[in-house]
Design goal:
This protein starts with a helix and ends with a helix. The strands form 3 sheets. The chain has a 5-stranded mixed sheet. Strands 8-7-9 form a 3-stranded antiparallel sheet, sandwiched between helices. It contains 12 helices and 10 strands. With 291 residues, it is of the alpha+beta class. It is 44% helix and 19% strand.
Length: 291
């Protein structure tokens, strides 16, 4: 069955607004034209798609069944046209990212990047903040630190304040920083973090004897399973906090570094890397505005 595109567009806009006038304004046509398109579509299908109400429209069962199909079809068409309109050749971009950033921040936004930069063929490798860009064939690397890496151009992506996190069960009974002395203090390879956090909290640091982890991802999982207290970058574990697997018993934060997009100074930035960098900055700004 041949269905006219203009009629389907009129149906989709009318179904979204449930108002012919607003649909006509969006499509830059008259209300009469929208009404005629819908009537022709209904005649073609042999079924009513709307019920006309005194103050607008309501979808019939047939209209409700048709709407998601039409919406997805228009979305697929738009994506296909965007790809055809981008005449740039596909370019491989190999990115190394510290695992915490990759899982906690980048992956939830990956679909947006693919849609925004379809010419980039992204290859994502993870690391534990120790990386050899030349040896591993990376175009760039996302790292945590102070931005000072020899021979490297570093662009700040976002700050990464750290906070004490633990399972909800371990949080009971914690009132002051001194109460942490009764709990295992899980550690990362940065051995001075707990001492710095207690100093910022104005409390003496107890002897730290907790297990040591080379990744914040495994450190966070151990904390969520009740193994002890962990110092973790808050922005990378928002899902775990929202789900209630981790909680923050104290508001005190520790500012020890940021996430940076780095590349070798000896290698010029490619179009793909420039697009990735611009997208990262835009996403970081939006995330900052939401907090």
């Amino acid at each position: 069955m041949h269905l006219p595109l203009n009629a389907l567009r009129a149906f989709e806009a009318s179904a979204r607004h449930l108002n012919l006038t607003r649909a006509a304004e969006e499509l830059h046509v008259t209300q009469t034209a929208v009404s005629q398109h819908i009537r022709k579509l209904e005649d073609r299908l042999g079924k009513p798609l709307f019920r006309r109400l005194p103050r607008g429209l309501a979808l019939t069962d047939e209209g409700q069944a048709l709407l998601p199909v039409v919406v997805e079809s228009f979305a697929s068409l738009e994506r296909a046209l965007e790809k055809l309109g981008d005449t740039r050749p596909r370019e491989v971009l190999t990115v190394g990212a510290v695992g915490t950033f990759a899982v906690g921040w980048l992956l939830p936004r990956l679909r947006d990047f693919q849609q925004a930069c379809p010419f980039v063929d992204l290859r994502l490798l993870t690391h534990n903040n120790r990386v050899d860009m030349a040896g591993e064939g990376l175009d760039c690397a996302i790292r945590f630190g102070d931005g000072a890496w020899h021979g490297t151009h570093a662009e700040r992506i976002m700050d990464a304040p750290m906070s004490v996190m633990c399972s909800p069960a371990l949080a009971h009974g914690l009132r002051t920083a001194a109460d942490l002395a009764r709990q295992p203090l899980l550690r990362s390879y940065r051995t001075d973090e707990w001492a710095a956090w207690f100093e910022a909290a104005g409390a003496p640091c107890p002897v730290v004897r907790g297990a040591v982890f080379d990744s914040s991802l495994t450190l966070a999982e151990a904390a969520a399973q009740g193994a002890g207290m962990a110092l973790l970058p808050v922005r990378m574990f928002t899902r775990e906090l929202q789900q209630g697997r981790l909680v923050r018993p104290f508001a005190q934060e520790l500012h020890r570094g940021a996430y940076w997009l780095t590349r070798l100074q000896s290698r010029p930035a490619t179009d793909a890397l420039l697009a990735f960098s611009e997208w990262l900055r835009a996403q970081a700004r939006m995330a900052a505005e939401e907090t």
